[in-house]
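Consider the record:
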Amino acid sequence: MKKKLFCLLLVCVLAVSLMPAVTAADNEITVYNWGQYISDGNDGSLDVIAAFEEETGIKVNYLTFDSNESMYTKLKTGGTTYDVIIPSDYMIGKLIEENMLEPLNFDNIPNYQYIDESFRNQSYDPANTYSVPYTWGTVGLIYNSQHVSAADAASWNCLWNEKYSGKILMFDNPRDAFAIAESILGYSLNTENEDELRAAAELLTEQKSLVQSYVMDQIFDKMQRGEAWAAPYYAGDFLTMVEENPDLAFSFPEEGFNIFIDAMCIPKGCQNKEGAEAFINFLCRPDICAANLDYLGYSAPESAAKELMDPEVTSSPVAYPDDETLARTESFGALSTQATQLMNDLWLNVKTTGSNTTLYIVISVVAVLAIAAVFVLMNVRRRRKKARRCK
């Protein structure tokens, strides 16, 4: 009787343990997005995730990353499953090339109809198979007008200006950092020429002694609080930052700058593809898109949403630059494996050259040798004492 009861209980436990996995896949999704990149209900804004959960009954597990590269590494190494990711254009091209994205079922994304034609058929996804635009924007120079002159801020060279030493922030990822150096040197942001990449690395190395820190999302808070005076960052975030710190100003550097599209994708191995497509469709709905981007400050890829947005945002030359300004932009393309590896290696050299790493190694070696010497000395003394006792 006890054996039968035990078997019955075991079957029940196994059955119950299997049920949540099925239910979770149907009623949950995991979204992986940039930090501070969705309207969350603060300051009277729409809580986009709460609104989606209420409308669909699908629970959203929301996680963030701070660079395309860190997101890619997380996907590549596995261990966590995501249903929706929001990478930038060049990274989408890389993910497609490596067969890491699921084709979208646009029958489940009818609101795709609102995406403007100018944001379709992009080079990173020419057949519109794997991605739906989320926002677009530019990278410029944010500076504190109380400490940095507008004339200095008109050029990326501001980030190499010794007047602002210790108050300069720099992107902590190779693609964005190299792009700034490449702009100054007059190179394409997509160069794969080894000599040009090495020249860009040399320029970044020259800047290092002036940099307060290499950061990503932390730029937002550091510039808002006045801890730093100049930093490259995204135009959309500037519009939020300046509300808290009116001393901040924005510049589109004269040498040129990056323009990007961030888009929603579904990675291979997702657990709830239909739920993911429902989330993408929800974010494309004009009223949701408008409320989301009104809060974020980023630019809308659909005119229907733009018409519903705050005119103060849509008329901003920072969020929506004129054609003359846009003529100085360049999009990132996916670099070859060889060029990417070279850039990563050079970036590592930039980060470690002239650092205290060598000093730490020397100190550690000296410390180990000193400890070893103490042990040897103590051992010699013990032997001498023992020898004297024997006599």
Q: What stands out?
A: The two ends are 80 Å apart (CA to CA). The longest helix spans residues 357-390.
